[in-house]
Amino acid sequence: MLIAAFNSRNENASHSDLSRLDTIGGFGLFLFLLFFQLNATVAYIGLLILSLVFASQAKTWMPVMKRDSVAIVYLLITLYIVFFTIWAIVEFPATSGDQRKLLFNWMHWLFFIPVAWQQFRHRKYIGAMLLTLAAGVLIRIIVNFPWADFGKLFQTERTGFGTSMTVFAPIASSTVLGLLLLAPRMATQNSTTTKWLLWLRTSGWLVGSAILLESIVLTQTRGVWLASALVFPLALVVRYKSALANHVKISTQSVAVLALLCGLAGLFVHKNYQTLFNRVNSEQVQSQPEVVKQQIEGQEVLLTTSVGYRKIFWEIGWRKWKERAFFGWGPGTTEELLKQEKNPLFSQSVTRKDGVTVTLHLYHLHNLYLEFLVRFGVLGTLLFLTLPVLLLSNVWKAYAKGGIPWDYVCFLFAGWGLMAIMAFFDFQLYKYAWRNYCLIWAALTYAVQLEQLTLQHEKIQSKK
């Protein structure tokens, strides 16, 4: 998806002429990108369309990917999940229903290669793709924002704008990251750009960034706040350090823009300070040091804090992993393992809108890495984690060869950094929007590699 703006080769080279199948695949890609967090059914339809097109274009992509390390690991993971699920159903028949149900959720992530292929085929339309993604996020905010309480914008309760707060916050955070790191591209004036259009784009960038930043605050998701606080400053310094060092002459316009940004940042912090302070120091975590201290001393404490809950989950997960350290318990076993603990803290009575009271069971360990270990053991975890390592290493290789600009390298690495930190505190596999979010990041990263693989394949073919 990012490849369209790469200057490594002529955009009108071999794949610029789109076939009818490419057009159909592009339509599926549009549906998926627009609805990836708006509507599961439409997003799945788009994913199905582009996957069918991908399968029908096997003669085109197979020569390109056949020796690719990512494709090999991808195939190994796919086979491993399928056969491991069958084994888990036989080994733990009481969990067979959960094993089958969770198989799709885990396989869902692996559709990133068909998505990346369509992004690569339509690389000339990078602007439209990015706009589609951002439009979907903004539509959710606009449609689900409590406009009746607009006057209480900075004092409103937590909101996920129609979805889970812990799902929407990472999506909004990644969008802001892209706006910050790719800002010069959005505000660059070329020979065909008029001044009014440049100001319009800059204004849109400012307004969009402000809305998305405010939405992150309103979700009150501390894991995302922490990840953003750690990643954003580092990514911005790495991204702009060389540019600032080479910018010897400081213009009046640069000073004015910097002053405006500092003023807006100050206003943002001032308006949201109370929300941030209350959330960080809320009742959930106010007694955290004392509770943790009592636990370390071996006292039995009723944990009502966020960290306290996680400590219980992580202890159980660690114990269960050690019981089956190498192979794990199967892709759909965590909920059953938690039920077996018979801990009253893991069940909640909730009254639905129709007045019926139901009991909900907490079904995950609030840590993606621990979930990998418990469900798939060391072997499966190493397979899964090998994939992002290979993807990012190939991004760096592409950059070293001049195949990808520095700002995109920063964007991709920072995006994975956000996910890596957020995944330490939560697990959202059951939410389709979160799975799509991870899928899109993997697809963006792999699309970079497809450019290099295609170039290598063309060189080999030209020598024959």
Walk me through the structure.
It is globular, with a radius of gyration of 24 Å. The chain is built from 19 helices and two strands. The longest helix is centred in the C-terminal third of the chain and has 33 residues, at 368-400. The protein is mainly alpha-helical. Strands 1-2 form a two-stranded antiparallel sheet. The two termini are 30 Å apart. It has helices at residues 20-35, 40-56, 58-65, 69-91, 96-108, 112-121, 126-144, 165-181, 183-186, 195-219, 222-246, 252-280, 283-286, 288-296, 306-323, 334-341, 368-400, 406-422, 432-463, and strands at 347-351, 357-361. It has one domain. Helix content is 70%, strand content 2%. β1 and β2 (357-361) form a beta hairpin. α2 packs across α6 and α15 packs across α17. Its main location: membrane. It is found in: Membrane. One of its GO terms (cellular component) is membrane.
